[in-house]
Amino acid sequence: MNNSQTPLAGRVPAQTDELLVVENLGKSYGDHQVLGDISVTVRSGEFMCIVGPSGAGKTTLLQCLSGLINPTSGTVSLRGKVVTEPPAEMAIVFQDYSRSLMPWLSVLDNVMLPLRSATKDKAERKKKAMEALIEVGLKDHVEKYPWQLSGGMQQRVAIARALAYAPAIVLMDEPFASVDAQTRGDLEDLTLKLKNHLGITIVLVTHDIDEAVYLADRVLVLGNKPTQVVDLIETHLGTERDQISTKATREFAQLRTRVYQEIRHGDIPSSAGSVAAPAAS
Amino acid sequence: MSEMTPKSNTAVLAGARTKARKGGSAVAGRRRVGIGPKLIAIAGVLLLWQLLSVSPLVDSDSLPAPVTVFAALLGLWGTGAYWAALGTTLQVWAIGLALCAVIGVPAGLLIGVSMRATQSTRWVIDFFRTIPTIALLPLVLLLFGATSRMEITMIVLAAIWPLLIQSMYAAKQVEPLLKWVFRVFRISTMDRLRFLWAPSVTLLVSTGMRLAATMALLMTIAAEYIGGAPGLGLELSHMEQAFKRPEVFAYAITAGMIGLLINAALVLFQRRVLWWHPIIRGERSE
Ligand SMILES: Nc1ncnc2c1ncn2[C@@H]1O[C@H](COP(=O)(O)OP(=O)(O)OP(=O)(O)O)[C@@H](O)[C@H]1O
Ligand SMILES: [Mg+2]
Q: What is the sign, positive or negative, of the torsion defined by CA atoms of B264, B267, B269, B275?
């Protein structure tokens, strides 16, 4: 399944190409086999979106990638080391922001807490946390409590918490699913901007095909039962994306049609093979 | 929103009450009743009592009028015996309750963390907490005599159950997603206890404390009254034997007032420490 198309020029550092390697990953709950046999490699610095029908096991896959749950078969390794517990270079943004933040800590303290073991100096911790909070545009809300913020703002706190932790890779499970459309667009653009600024690798699960194509360097399509990799599509939409103009391009439309058909049929449609042409811009 | 922003982290707890009030006042006002109606309710009870005591329904020797009882109470306040008894009772109560907390909270939390431990201890706990502890008094009395050790044993036997059970529930309702967040960010065990477990279990554990405090007080006085250990209960029993009805009621009222104060203190503690909690904020009830 490894895609052999050439990466965008200058985007991917050659020597550290393979960051997270998934080999023959399978996961069963009792007799119920959720993930069949998944192999995929996440490249350093890329934005990978995972899409698939509901119940396909996207969340399960992400939990296996992070070491929060153990796969039934196969391995996940980060920079060559097998993942059994969440690695230090990894952060996660969960979908349910209202439950993933601590209501008894202020926004700033929520972001500072994960830094306690690595950064002993409190002033230093605060500086790092503030930088992340400024990055996500919450400079004026750091002393508030999560429950005093809107949903979109709460999710930005969760993103800031992940950023301040300075991970090499961030996993996100439908991070924008519970916010309104406008906020969702803003958060998507914020995430893209952060990824480009900071050079972190992002793996994001979504069931919104537009979102997947808009954000991703590569889209991983899951399907079939038990779940397999249906396709891995290089988007070639470039670094600079715009909610209106990017989504209006022919390439974007072709990509979303292709992903849509693959999800619907659980297979690569015969006509879709040559659709993804490099973006003009 | 801006008036809700605390100035610094240390000011947070101090400003908590006002903030919580402001934040959830619309809803909280509906649930929290001010002091006025409470005083009216007390006045109503006193009036009813007064009417009942002067009515021909009860004879005034068995039910003295409130005025008489409060006169007796004032009289008792002038005696050393009253204050000594009060001091002894409170001391024994505090030791007994502390023992309940020291045993019940950690045990409850540990049992609650493990599904297995919860299931295997369920019958034992349900059995022991249903036993009317007062029935064990003769046995405990035989072991320790009319001493504070007897009282403390009785207190623990009676009051540890609500604490144990509340602590078990407390351990179970720690948000699983937050446990994952702490794992993902590899937060140390000490910090996990401090920043996840302590805040998460405080509401239920302190509610258990409230229940246990009341039960412990009841048991202290009962053990003194029936078992003859020194304290308010014994004084009450002496007064009864001397047919001093107003004094009997005065001691009973003393016990009621202690209970009231203890509960008020614990509620205040909860509001101070848990001001961030949705239930305390009154935004949503769970
Ligand atoms: N802890 C669990 N125990 C048993 N079965 C589980 C568990 N977690 C998930 N499953 C099952 O695994 C399958 C995949 O679930 P998962 O949540 O990974 O799907 P998903 O692709 O994330 O779906 P959605 O798009 O709805 O979020 C489902 O059939 C679900 O019932
Ligand atoms: Mg899911």
A: negative
